[in-house]
Amino acid sequence: MKSTKRMCSSVLISAPQGRSGKTIVSLALCALLRKRGLSVQPFKKGPDYIDPSWLSGAAGRSCRNLDLFFMPEETALASFQQACQGADVALIEGAMGLYDGLDSAGWGSTAHLARLLNVPVILVVNATRMTGSIAAMVMGYQHFQQDVKIAGVILNNVSGSRHERKLTTAVEQYCHIPVVGSIPRDTDLCVRERHLGLIPFPEAEKAGSTVERIGRKLEAHLDIDGILNIARSFEVTAAIPLTGLKNKTGLAKIGVMLDRVFNFYYPENLEALSRAGADLVFIDSLQDPLPEVDGLYIGGGFPELFLKELESNNSLRSDIADAIEDGLPVYAECAGLMYLCRGIRWQGQRHEMVGIIPAEVDMSLRPQGHGYVEAEVIQENPYFPIGLTLRGHEFHHSKLSKLGDVKFAYHIRRGHGIDGEVDGIIYKNVFAAYTHLHALSIPGWAEAFVSLASQERKRPLTSVLRN
Predict the structure, then answer these.
(1) Residue among 8, 30, 334, 341 flagged as catalytic
(2) 207-218 and 50-59 helices cross at what angle (nearest 10)?
């Protein structure tokens, strides 16, 4: 008897180089496929938080990161197949150029991911000041690694119908693959940026209307049927179950700062906490008091843009400080670390923060840490055993000054962390680091956090909260 299990089609959007238009195309496709009534599961290659926030908004379904530096191939494949369940189309946005990886062989590249997942690639090519040469470029990408299936091309920055005709003829005549989109040069086809790239979707004003505008503008310039035909040449038929997916319940309440300031969280991290037995309580750092929780998770974001508002919520800052002194487990990454320090200086002004970490935060115009991190655990802590090697990433424009006497959990082998040597500040039950971790690369992190929080459940926090 034939299986009636619904299959998920899949396609990967890549380019010869960064800033070719991958994100705009990916957002438009998520919005337009969703408009057709299809369920779209978005993915982003690499560790980025910001592009996934926009893809999640466009698709109406949480974007997942696929990163081969973080996780083994089998874990990435299992995560991909698991997330595709219940979706009609999986859309993966690549990073940088198709073959750009961590070494000259392209390990960890978008091509590596496409090969692992056996997914067809559509190449977005910036066609500015180019006609017939596009065929030589695309053919080079086709033959460089022939086990990567480049199945179509989308032209970007096309200057007119004559330009489009020359480009399309060259690609289809010499490369024997279809052109499935031709996007005219349009300065309005953009998403606002600042020092760290795109503004995150939860923070951007009128983010939904921006996605709608991009989809509306590109609808006439993308061959949606042709793209779907390419996507249907690969279908996800079954999921390899990820280990440890049985849910526990009610072991601890963990507060999660989730708002315009703190919104850099991998969905897998929150899901891992829930599976480990945490009931998640979401907190708005700009206006909420501290609820009665057994642990607190403060992720990444841009606190420097909300310093007055963060400082104004004095009751929350005071309650967090008091609760930490009373033993509240807190796990903080990057912006979370900054928030727990004494104060943040930005554009000549200083604003008070929680004050539990004896350090000042100084913002810089230049990145202080940017890229992948490899760290060895060197200090006893509640989350990770000594000797464990962790892989994560960092992207911060801040550094700590006037740092007091603290313990550090990590020795940095690759990356910068706090000072190029160490990261992971330990204070009581606080663990605060510049390094972002992904739960699928550190399977025991969520269990350790929930276990620590469940021990605190026996001690009500209402005794330390201010009225």
Answers:
(1) 334
(2) 70
Pick the CATH number of 8-236 from 3.40.50.300, 3.40.50.620, 3.30.1360.120, 2.160.10.10: 3.40.50.300
Secondary structure of residue 258 in the 3-state scheme: coil
Q: Are 87 and 40 in contact (CB under 8 A)?
A: yes
For residues 418 and 368, give the distance between their C-alpha atoms in angstroms, rounded to a whole number. 9
Of 150, 144, 49, whose CA–CA distance to 101 is shortest?
144
Q: Are 95 and 110 in contact (CB under 8 A)?
A: yes
Please report which confidence band the pLDDT of residue 237 belongs to, taking 50, 70 and 90 as the band edges: low
Give the β-pairing of 40-45 and 89-93: parallel
Q: Identify whether 8 is a catalytic site residue.
A: no
Q: Per-residue confidence at 248, pLDDT binned at 50, 70, 90?
A: confident
pLDDT in tens, 112-131: 999 999 999 999 999 999 99
Name the segment(s) of the chain with CATH classification 3.40.50.880: 252-463
Residue 459 has pLDDT above 70, yes or no: no
Provide the whole-model pTM: 0.93
- Please say if the pLDDT value at position 8 is more than 50: yes
Superfamily of domain 252-463: Class I glutamine amidotransferase (GATase) domain (3.40.50.880)
pLDDT tens for residues 213-226? 999 999 999 999 99
Alpha helix (H) ranges present in 301-460? 307-312, 314-325, 335-340, 445-456
Model confidence pLDDT, tens digit, residues 404-454: 999 999 999 999 999 999 999 999 999 999 999 999 999 899 999 999 999
- Pairing state of beta strands 89-93 and 8-14? parallel
- What is the chain's percent helix, strand, coil content, to nearest 5? 30, 30, 40
For 322-347, give one letter per residue: b (16+ CB within 10 A) or e: bbbeeebbbbbbbbbbbbbbbbbbbe
Chain centroid offset of residue 74 CA: 20
Predicted pLDDT at 83: 96
* 211 touches 200 (CB < 8 A): no
Q: What is the pLDDT at residue 464? A: 43
